[in-house]
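ok so dumb question maybe but i'm new to this and my supervisor (M.) told me to 'just get the structure for Deoxyribonuclease NucA/NucB domain-containing protein' and walked off. so i did the thing. is this what she meant?? sequence i used:
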Amino acid sequence: MKRILAAVGVAATICLLVPTSQAAGAGERPEPTPTASATPEQPGGPIKETDGCKAQEKAAQRRAVQGDDQQVCIRPSTPDEARQTQPRALERKLEDHRPKDYVPIPEWCWDHALDGWWVNREHACKISSKTAIVRQFPTWKKIGEIYFLEINYAYTDASAPTWGNQIVVDKSGGWGAIEGARVQGFAACSGQCKVGEGKFPSQLLSKEKVSYGEWLLDSTVSAGQRGNGSNVPGYYITVPGAIPSPPEFDATETIRCDDELRPSKGPGCVVPSYEPPWAVSLSGQWKNFARHVRDAQKSGLPGAYPDGEPLTRLRDRADIRRNGDRACPQEGAGGYPRPTGYSCDEYPFRSTHQGAYTQSPPPQPPAPGRTFDWCQINQLGSGTGAKGWSACMIPATENSEAGREGLRPFYEDNRVLAKDEFHVWIVE
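this is what came out, is it supposed to look like this??
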């Protein structure tokens, strides 16, 4: 893991989601909440959780006639079987007996154990409970079970065209003919990526030690482009004297890598299903800017974190200029007078598709503008609702800094590309 481990060694802090400058003056930096994800969509279509026992029953019985007398299969645990597993016990085991190069998973992954995929902009994690069953032929009688937890964890680096994927398999218990059971695995990348370094060698399934596999995946995206990829790690369990289980596949969440942010930033990778929030403090260095966004969102305009309709990034320079000109026309062109030391701030931002022009371009009638009683713009009145935009006079230095030192780094650090969705989080 040496190529990107140094960059993601602080993975659990989610540090790249909210750059320090965004919440200046607000005390400790807030951490956005990860969100649940549906079954990952791969470039070739969705891969759903498999039931190897059901899928292999008929084929396994056919093989038994030829003299094979035992077969191993893997399936999702039943609720009763899942109760045999203890995710927090596994967390303690990993703290005490960490495999070499193991990257600790975020605490929120443990909080959502056995609850599907959970993601933020740079991490995707799922802890599952599964059961390996040993059956006797030709009766198909169950003669042993292994209860185990699987951790599938993908972590990206927004500043490198490589991401990591690790698999942990931990035996929680079992019974019967399971002595000497082992697990080993492999990886295959789907989409615009290739498997680089990594391995999942054969390891004994033990309650005292976890089994572990890891890979680095390299993006194959061309310069100036973007593309999706998903690792499809597989593993199988063997028991002496039995046919190994069919491979258990568990595709990672889709990872997007791009090289669209040059020259300001090189290539990097993120989890695109997560809509990142930009945190801005009401008590920080851009408090008037934050106040305007807060009032605009409270009046019904989109973008509020976490439940508002998201904003969508716009990168067309001509449309960005049109958005700014419509929301904040210059004073000499029928626009608003600028008090000394102040400049006009617009929301939604001119760099979004919800901006004053692009939300209703010609031949549609212009969307209505609004302002607030402290904003020093007499030409606009109040308003409510999701349609429209707001304008406000705020200190010019603060206005320019919020864009240059806040919004722009947020876009780059989170690789918010054209048409990507995001929110604005106003904190105290």
